[in-house]
User: What shape does this take?
Amino acid sequence: MKRITNLHTWAICILHVTLLGSLVMAAPLFAEDMMHDNRQPPAKLVRQVREATRQFLDVNNAVQAGYGPAFGCVTGPDHGAMGIHYVNGGLVGDGKIDVDHPEALIYEPDGKKRRLVGVEYIVDAATWLKNNNNVPPTLDGQDFQFVAAPNRFNLADFFELHVWAWRDNPLGAFVDWNNQVTCEAQ
Assistant: This one.
């Protein structure tokens, strides 16, 4: 009887050690899942862009507001894409940056349909610098990127800022390329 009790005690000890080891090994996985479930709310600028561009979820509204497709569907040099830029020439040429009036709306093609994924703020570099004491533009703390001529758009030097307000971007809401956007469905 004593031998059966010792075997039973050993079996329970081994079971406890095994369970403890399993919990120790699984803890990082649970922590990682919890981190993904507790996503940060979108940045203030992303929220502002969503409010300002909600009416352009329908591309027909963008066309009626003076936006038109330019450059075709822009894909990344080695990853991701931007999509089709619907540009408002009057806004590009005004030398101003206004969160409520982005110079370009970016759509992902899905056959003949267009899905709004983000916006791009664009301003001529010479005009901006002349009117703003040679200080490069920022919007809600986000620095604009400088794009020198010559460039693939055949434009003079300009500053630009992408805001991926309608499509999550694993690289960040304000980077140029989005790996979640594709031109393959056009």
Remarks:
- Strands lie at 68-75, 81-87, 104-110, 113-124, 138-139, 142-143, 145-147, 158-163.
- The mean pLDDT is 84.
- The longest strand covers residues 113-124.
- The helical segments are 2-37, 44-53, 59-64, 89-92, 125-131.
